[in-house]
């Protein structure tokens, strides 16, 4: 995980974009403008690491509000 965190830090541009889908209870975090990933790593049951050309471009947090209340 540490290596991915370092890669996140290096891949960040000037924009951090956060979107929440209340109906699906999913939080989307994009490092720069949202873009389509070509690969996804499952960090845990609820956290997806989205990648494009091997660089981390964002995170998807499933069951976001539910996970905050537990």
Structural overview:
The protein is an alpha+beta fold. 23% of the residues lie in helices and 43% in strands. Strands 1-2-5-4-3 form a five-stranded antiparallel beta sheet. The model has no long low-confidence stretch (mean pLDDT 83).
SSE topology:
Blueprint: H1 2-11, E1 16-21, E2 26-31, E3 39-42, E4 47-52, E5 55-62, H2 64-69
Antiparallel strand pairs: 1-2, 2-5, 3-4, 4-5
Structure described in brief:
This protein is an alpha+beta fold and 70 residues long.
Features:
70 residues; alpha+beta; five-stranded antiparallel sheet; 2 helices
Spans with pLDDT under 50 lasting ≥5 residues? none
Tell me the number of helical segments per DSSP (H or I, 4 or more residues long).
2
DSSP, total strands:
5
The secondary structure category is alpha+beta
Shape: globular
**Rounded to an integer, what's the Rg over CA atoms?**
12 Å
Q: Give the fraction of residues assigned to helices.
A: 10-25%
What is the helix/strand order?
HEEEEEH
Please report which band the strand proportion falls in: under 5%, 5-15%, 15-25%, 25-35%, 35-45% or over 45%. Answer: 35-45%
Instruction: Summarize the main sheet.
Output: 5 strands, antiparallel
Measured between the Cα atoms of the first and last residue, the distance is 23 Å
- Mean of all residue-level pLDDT scores: 83
